[in-house]
Amino acid sequence: MKRAVAALLLVASAQAFAWGPEGHRIVGEIAAEHLTPAAKAAVDQLLAGEAEPTLPGIANWADETRNPETGPLHYINMPRGDCHYQPPRDCPNGHCVVGGIEHAVAVLKHSGASLEARRTALKYMVHFVGDIHQPLHAGLAEDRGGNSFLLNWHAAHNNLHRLWDSTMITQVEPDWRRYAARLAPYAINTDLATLDPADWAQASCELAQSPGFYPETHDPGDAYFEQWQPTVDHQLNLAGLRLAAWLNVLLQ
Length: 252
Description:
The protein is mainly alpha-helical and 252 residues long. Helix content is 55%, strand content 3%.
């Protein structure tokens, strides 16, 4: 019994990231498709020499290099019932995903920043904009953004965070390129609403605390998928388009 519990906890702790690799690549691909020529040229210059010098190619770098110091920059925790962003409470010293995005923006704006600093800022920007649109990355500290809310999904051990990270993506289409192409028509009528990352965090928090987001049972079945998978699509699309909008401003 102890081994089984330990195994479940290991699954939960191993999924402490936002969108899985496919999701972050999808966000990067959507952004890349909506860059201005000037921004695309700047991205190409900044990423020259990377193993995969594209926005989807570097979209997972921040997870691959994640450490205890940078870990808190991938998420934000807000109290139950209060999604109004308060920096001293929710992001002390800028150490949350909102602060991570704001710092990346500041570096990319700074004309005197080195090429290496700007390259690193771009890598973080691509990843953190994806992170902040995964609702559970503005979730509750008490269950580690849904990581401790264990699920049985199709007879496989899972948790709510992992379900949103990857399962509701790969169950629709495991190939990230085809998934991004599938979302392309949605871009036409998408209202970006705001380019303020604090507003993005508040909206994600409101999603994560909305009725039905946490399933009533730990075996929610296909009904949960059918209800919430369109929200996954919307958040991925919104993240990619907002990322492109920011890069088009920053990389003129």
